Inverse folding.
């Protein structure tokens, strides 16, 4: 059906603003609806970037960039592609945490998201259909907003994380932005300040739990599959009590991915492999301590443990290298409040002479002498100087990864970790960190954020038409990030830089697609993984509309 000039200009997937060609202006009824000078996309991008630079806070910068996103997706991604490392912290983490906390106050428009309400489960299918319009949806990022980053329950306001994660998919891996759908499952919120806020835009009741919740999620998954067959379902920032359960329920038969559990597992394994490449040590010699044993903590621990088993250890041997600390202290198998994901890693009190004293991180570090310390606790500043020095006293190159987001929640700052260990620590952080100068050496700090892997993983899965996403493919994704950094450069980062995100997303995607083909998990015949990935890549250039 031919669209009217108004429909085109108001459609962010079609709008070109001042870049409509003369022929398009003449043939589509657009003449005179934009000023007469015809700009190239680069002229538009330059002008937009100049305006962007005039904004003084990251929040204002983000709001400005989102106004372009709202109007013109091609221009937004063209600009994003030109400034990827600079824009990542603005459009994504950490600034996204501010827009989530203030979503209702800042609301301008829905950004093509689908808002599904637990109070109207019968409308799930029709809402998804309406949100997609005539677009073919191949990727959904869905959240119920219960565990947003480390800032907790933000109800419907969490939809920004779905929008934000999808922006990174396109900027990093070239996923076609017209083929994606952000989804909010609005099941209520337990944040009283939102329930009391007259501006709050979501359902004003407590979070629904149990069977009604599960049926609602199921209704969503079934409707999405029905409307968009083979759609890749990315689950983001669900709560600790639901995230792993949902993943387990659907991962055998559907193409589902939990970013906090699996994406974080991949990036941390890649970080550890990168660090060991620098220290020239073996993974099987490491002692791993997880601080904050929730979705991310448990997901990472099981990924690193699988790697130890791949390296030749038995399950029992591998397990003996892992320790988990949560609110209770070191997790022991006699505790009655362990989650199913924590249980396999809980220790026996009989292993320690002072088991009852191991109720805090410092005591545990003293007792077990970890070589790898990963923070997913949401507790800022908990990797203290004493703890880090104690760790560094027993290992030459301590691997320390404070991953809690956003910035205000990080367990430590990279500069402190480098200083406290006299430059010996191998560090990566959840949020972007500037290089650290210490004793004449520049230490590059990698960003151990799942954004470095989920775009390439998704592209690989979609391009290869995978039926499911299994553990083997996930392991291949983690390994594919190696070899990009020069490990012999003093102060080298343990992960590749975000400035090369688009290039290494292709590398990840190719490794993933190849593995899908090797396992015969592709739905459609594919001759060449590399070609399939390249072929799938969307480029932010205007297409001809006339
Ligand atoms: N860098 C990344 O890519 C990445 C990915 C996922 C999550 N994260 C971050 O990790 C953090 C946790 O996320 P999640 O999804 O696992 O959340 P979660 O709620 O599932 O887990 C948090 C865990 O920390 C524990 N905790 C709370 N207070 C503690 C304390 N004082 N001492 C020890 N443990 C404590 C909680 O009991 C819970 O088990 C968040 O800040 C999130 O931003 C980072
Ligand atoms: O969103 C991020 O920056 C990473 C991660 O998924 C998180 O929940 O913190
Ligand atoms: Mn997350």
């Amino acid at each position: 059906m031919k669209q009217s000039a108004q429909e085109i200009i108001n459609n962010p997937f079609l709008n070109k603003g001042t870049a409509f060609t003369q022929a398009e202006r003449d043939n589509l009824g657009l003449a005179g609806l934009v000023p007469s000078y015809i700009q190239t996309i680069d002229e538009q991008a330059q002008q937009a970037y100049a305006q962007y630079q005039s904004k003084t806070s990251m929040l204002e910068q983000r709001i400005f960039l989102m106004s372009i996103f709202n109007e013109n997706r091609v221009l937004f991604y063209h600009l994003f592609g030109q400034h990827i490392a600079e824009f990542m912290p603005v459009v994504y983490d950490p600034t996204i945490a501010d827009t989530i906390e203030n979503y209702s106050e800042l609301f301008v428009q829905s950004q093509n998201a689908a808002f599904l309400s637990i109070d109207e489960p019968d409308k799930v299918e029709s809402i998804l259909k309406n949100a997609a319009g005539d677009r073919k949806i191949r990727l959904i990022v869905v959240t119920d907003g219960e565990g947003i980053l480390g800032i907790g329950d933000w109800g419907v306001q969490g939809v920004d994380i779905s929008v934000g994660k999808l922006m990174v998919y396109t900027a990093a891996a070239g996923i076609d932005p017209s083929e994606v759908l952000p989804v909010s499952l609005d099941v209520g919120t337990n944040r009283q300040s939102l329930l009391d806020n007259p501006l709050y835009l979501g359902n004003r009741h407590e979070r629904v739990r149990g069977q009604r919740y599960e049926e609602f999620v199921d209704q969503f998954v079934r409707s999405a599959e029905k409307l968009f067959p083979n759609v890749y379902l990315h689950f983001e920032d669900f709560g600790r009590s639901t995230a792993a359960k949902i993943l387990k329920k659907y991962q055998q038969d559907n193409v589902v991915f939990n970013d906090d559990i699996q994406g974080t597992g991949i990036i941390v394994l890649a970080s550890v492999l990168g660090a060991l490449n620098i220290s020239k040590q073996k993974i099987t010699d490491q002692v791993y301590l997880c601080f904050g044993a929730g979705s991310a903590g448990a997901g990472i621990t099981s990924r690193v443990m699988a790697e130890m088993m791949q390296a030749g250890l038995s399950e029992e041997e591998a397990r003996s290298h892992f320790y988990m600390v949560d609110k209770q202290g070191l997790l022991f198998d006699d505790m009655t409040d362990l989650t199913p994901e924590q249980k396999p890693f809980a220790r026996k009190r009989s292993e320690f002479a002072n088991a009852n004293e191991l109720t805090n991180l410092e005591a545990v570090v003293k007792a077990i002498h970890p070589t790898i310390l990963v923070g997913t606790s949401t507790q800022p500043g908990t990797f203290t100087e004493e703890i880090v020095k104690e760790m560094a006293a027993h290992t030459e190159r301590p691997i320390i990864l404070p991953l809690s987001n956003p910035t205000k929640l990080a367990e430590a700052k990279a500069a402190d970790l480098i200083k406290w260990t006299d430059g010996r620590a191998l560090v990566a952080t959840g949020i972007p960190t500037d290089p650290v100068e210490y004793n004449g050496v520049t230490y590059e700090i990698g960003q151990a954020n799942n954004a470095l892997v989920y775009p390439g993983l998704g592209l690989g899965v979609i391009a290869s038409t995978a039926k499911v996403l299994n553990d083997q493919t996930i392991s291949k994704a983690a390994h594919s990030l190696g070899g990009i950094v020069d490990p012999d450069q003093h102060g080298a980062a343990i992960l590749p830089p975000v400035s090369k995100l688009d290039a290494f997303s292709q590398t990840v995607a190719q490794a993933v697609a190849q593995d899908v083909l090797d396992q015969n998990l592709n739905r459609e015949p594919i001759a060449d993984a590399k070609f399939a990935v390249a072929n799938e890549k969307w480029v932010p250039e205007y297409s001809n509309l006339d």
Notes: The CA atoms of residues 456 and 508 lie 5 Å apart.
